[in-house]
Design goal:
- Residues 1-44 form the Integrase SAM-like N-terminal domain.
- InterPro entries: Integrase_recombinase_N, Integrase_SAM-like_N.
- Keywords: DNA-binding.
- This protein is mainly alpha-helical.
- The protein has a single domain (3-78), classed as DNA polymerase, domain 1.
- The protein contains four helices and no strands.
- The protein has helices spanning 3-15, 21-38, 44-47, 64-78.
- Helix 1 (3-15) runs antiparallel to helix 2.
- The N and C termini lie far apart (62 Å).
Length: 79
Amino acid sequence: MGAVEVEGFLSVLAVRGGVAASTQNQALSALLFLYREVLRIDLPWMETMVRAKRSQRVPTVLAREEVFERSFKRAALRS
């Protein structure tokens, strides 16, 4: 497997598979381990591959009225 195939595999994981960045990075680490430790093949181009970055999560901020409405609805459902 060459650089093009490895990049393609990781891209398919991310796009078609919809995996998280951590899963994509784990797959890259597994490939690095396979080539270095098992097959004893040094692939310098694999060291320079860019790892996937976690997406930034934006917190949901509720207005005071929304907090009151949601807590009121929950209390009403419990009774």
